[in-house]
Amino acid sequence: MTKTLYLIHHSHTDIGYTDRQEKISRYHVNFIRRAIQILDEIESGQAPQWAGYNYVCENYWQVEQFLAHATETEKTSFTKYVEKGLIDISLTYLNLTELVDNVMLDKKFADAKNYVSQFDRKFDSAMTADINGFAWGYVDLMHKNGIRNFFSCLHTHHGMFPLFKKQMPFYWQGQSGEKVLVWNGDHYQIGNDFLFSPNTDQSKQYGIEGFTEKDWEDQFEATKQRVFGYFDLLEEENYEFDFCPVMISGIVTDNSPTSPRMMEGIHRWNEVYGDEIKVELVTLNHFFEILRGKELEIPTYSGDWADWWADGVSSTPAGVKLYREAQRKYRLVNKLDPNGEKANPAQLKDAEDHLVMYAEHTWGFHSSVSEPWDAFVNLLDTRKLSYAINGNRLVSNHLDDILETYGEEPNQLDRESFFKVINPHDDQVKTLASIYVQHWQTVDDSYFYTTLNDFVEVVDCQTGEVLVSQVSDSSRGKKISFYVDLAAKEERTVRLRRKDTKFKMNQKYDNHAHVGTEQIADIAPYEGFTHDVSIYGVKTDHLDITIDQNSGISSIIDRKTGAQLIHPDALHAPFAGVYEVTSFKDSNPYSVRSIMGRNRKAPSTERYTSKLVNIKQLADGPLYAVLLLKYELEGTGMYDVVLTVHKGAPQIDVTIRLQKTCAWEPENLYVALPFTYGTPEKTENYFEKSGTIFRPGIDQLPGSNTNFYSLDNGAIFKNEDQHLFVAMKDTPLVTLGSLESQLVELCDENSRKKNKEVLYSWAMNNFWETNFKVDLSGFYELEYAIYLLEDEATDVAQPIQSARNLIEGLITIPYNPTDLEKSTF
């Protein structure tokens, strides 16, 4: 029986790994131009030896770049060959990290779908290369946008394929119940190993005579051994099909030019060995037509397909922080202006393009670790960062344009201190809103003094109620915080008003045993006196937090239920830092990383835990208390944890301020998040990303990664109707369980225990040997939060939505009400 080797020809899109990002765009434009020229030559009869050539655009981004630069003649030719099926289009947009959320992903899938809808042929297939995993939400988003087939070209360097076996099909079922047919494929250039093209870089023919006929004969013999050897290996591994698809490029490099010369080797092969193993160059859509035409028993699996290469996001923490902020603003834009009527849509499109380019999987030039001083390395790193910067700038400007339509006023002297508070969400939200007053701004003609924080009050203009408020210092001036409860989409006008302040006798004259003359408040509670806020802990109506003077937070109790929120297996206090470094004294920066495999560390990795050296109470007001925990941690010059404990809600906001020092060695920096609700045995941990919610270690494809995950907003711990949400605003990467170097567990029937293990935020790493930014040094401010959310819903979707609303928050703008509005106040 004749077997068939299907080759699918594409150019892998890797933006910034081999050249400048904008140069890569030019390359791919010209790859398509060259494909058109080749097809013209074949069609005219000039190149019969290349008959059968076709080309697959690996993603729609390539097509976008071509259409933006092509002449009308080129566009006509492109359309002709796409119609004929000789140029194919994958309906993915780019090879993306899991930074991208479901809204952006949906838009980019829709762009591709809308473009191919003009053609009188079927487009229902997509491919991706290099990426070793995809959020579960991909399934439903692909299906929604007409994608029924998905070809995965994995890369097992520091990664692995799911199902414990590659080169096999399966149906991937989404949370909606819809399915996409997946080919769980091999590396995206394995077809080049067969040496069908004459005189490739793999031929290794460097004689002065060039590539001779004798070399071609020798290479053909190598092709014979490799092709038959490959099918022999498949048979040894009980491969059940009489065909196998592999990807091939013009040459073995990312962003490879197209080449028709593989057809010379294919024709030669089929003339000699075609009755045993036939080789066909097919397009992506054609392959899936062939596959679906076969009567095969194809299994169905559902669950998350965690990406092995998601850890790149922690190699550029500053850029990712900018990206995540822009992402939150982008969501607010879509809530405030769902129909795109209040601002310039072109500006928003520009912002989307920059943000999606930052979410592309390439983190830097290929020699970023071996040559971190190189000008090109630093050039490409800056270019990459610019996508986050410009995306943030554009979406911020777009949000400002929208807020202007809501009445936001620019800075004005002597403006009456009215402000509008907006709930952009589709749910009722009760939380803190904030107003910032700069040093030159007044409230009823009065300036804030440096130390005077209690001379203003916040008035609800609709009810006349004075809202409880608290003033603190910030880099933006005075920050006035107040609680407000707003219905979905509700707007409320408030005013800052000067209030009478009475002279207070110096605390040293107090006649009660509360504070000594040195202003130190260290008296324990006694009858008639409570001491709920101190460096030893904070007690509110909702939470009871205990601070251990040696380690930090040692207990957090939900006072309503008595449940402990810290995991009993915690080795590190919540928000403490853990630093790892691996020496290369017997090696070099490249090779020590290249052999790390999937573990991201070695048995020789040194591990350090932060040491608590000081605690300070920074504030204690009617709305919140603030404590500063100062740590010392190897690899950092500063590691401070600022806890803001809300008094009106079961919420703790956490800011980690750190100064990371520079090291060339492979490093990891973790933030401990050892939370649960009550007992871990009764608590389930859920992650949310790209529009889906799943239980790590349980709701995953068999054989997928359980070592780390990239999340949208955070994790939620559910115990019946009690929910603890841990928000990670700036650091999407998390890991579960022991930090020790060990064998890596893949998802199987035994991995359910991972769901109960201790959580860490993986804030920083630089372990990859090629394109990660090796220098993590600098000052950083990383934000976390925990929320207790009670909801009687049987699933976690509503509590998670409530947490998202709190993370995105309410919007407060300076506002000048009309005289008519004032008359109603």
TrEMBL record:
Gene3D superfamilies reported in the protein's UniProt record: Glycoside hydrolase 38, N terminal domain
A Pfam family hit: Glyco_hydro_38N
GO process terms (BP): mannose metabolic process
Domain Glycoside hydrolase family 38 N-terminal: 5-301
InterPro entries in the cross-refs: Glyco_hydro/deAcase_b/a-brl, Glyco_hydro_38_N, Glyco_hydro_38_N_sf
Highest taxon of the lineage: Bacteria
Single GO molecular function: alpha-mannosidase activity
Full protein name: Glycoside hydrolase family 38 N-terminal domain-containing protein
Source species of the chain: Enterococcus alcedinis
Taxonomy of the source species: Bacteria, Bacillati, Bacillota, Bacilli, Lactobacillales
